[in-house]
Amino acid sequence: MARPRHIAEFFHPEPENQDDWLASDECKEPEELFPQSRFLLVNPVTELEIPGLLQTMAQTLLSEWQSRVPMHVLSNDVAMLKREVAELRNSAQISLTIQSLVPEAFEIIAPIPVVVRNFDESYVATFFDANVNASGDTDVESVQNLKDMLVASYELLFSHDDDDLGAEMLRKKQVLANFMRPVSE
């Protein structure tokens, strides 16, 4: 028998040779062909019912696929949002001013502007004008470490004469002098 060229030929094939087909009274029932079969044909299907069954099966598969697609799309959206939140968290920054260096024996002449940024799993506090920064495990710790670094930088820079400092160190010394000074006793 030739291969069907169209789905309709599958269900109603035209015989190439009449000798290939059995007469309807010669056809045996499945139970006669397979007497010891392990399957049981509960509801025999007629040839006319097959297209309807295939249509039902196709609709069932389509609705099942459509019900799963939104979940897949939602999963992708959630993963994308998680990545974006992590990126925002890492790129977020806090702007604040240092108003006091207590317990150090320094006073603030002008509030020191500081930017705190999350960097990987730590925080970095930076006073950009003087190019001084410090890190810490938390934002508070990074600011406290920055205060310590400001005091240490001031003490180091003011322990040298201006002539002994390079251009950048002299600039840093002048910036720090505009924002802080030792407390006079």
Q: What can be said about this structure in brief?
A:
The protein is of the alpha+beta class and 185 residues long. The protein contains 5 helices and 6 strands.
Name the features.
single chain, 185 residues, 2 domains, four-stranded antiparallel beta sheet, two-stranded antiparallel sheet
**Main beta sheet strand tally, sense and closure:** 4 strands, antiparallel
Q: Percent range for helical residues?
A: 40-55%
Strand order of the largest sheet: 1-3-4-5
Please give the number of β-strands: 6
Based on CA atoms alone, the radius of gyration comes out at 42 Å
| Mean pLDDT reading | 81
Distance between the termini: 112 Å
Count of discrete alpha- or pi-helical segments spanning 4 or more residues? 5
| SS strand fraction | 15-25%
Structural class comes to: alpha+beta
Can you write the helix and strand succession as a string? HHHEEEEEHHE
Total number of domains: 2
The low-confidence runs, each spanning 5 or more residues with pLDDT under 50, are: none
The coarse silhouette is rod-shaped
Description:
By secondary structure, the chain is α+β, with helices and mostly antiparallel strands. The chain has 2 domains: 7-83, no CATH class; 93-182, no CATH class. β3 (112-119) and β4 form a beta hairpin. It starts with 6 loop residues before the first helix and ends with a strand. The model has no long low-confidence stretch (mean pLDDT 81). The longest helix has 42 residues, at 50-91. The strands form 2 sheets. A 4-stranded antiparallel beta sheet has the order 1-3-4-5. Strands 2-6 form a two-stranded antiparallel sheet. It contains 5 helices and 6 strands. α4 packs across α5 (167-179).
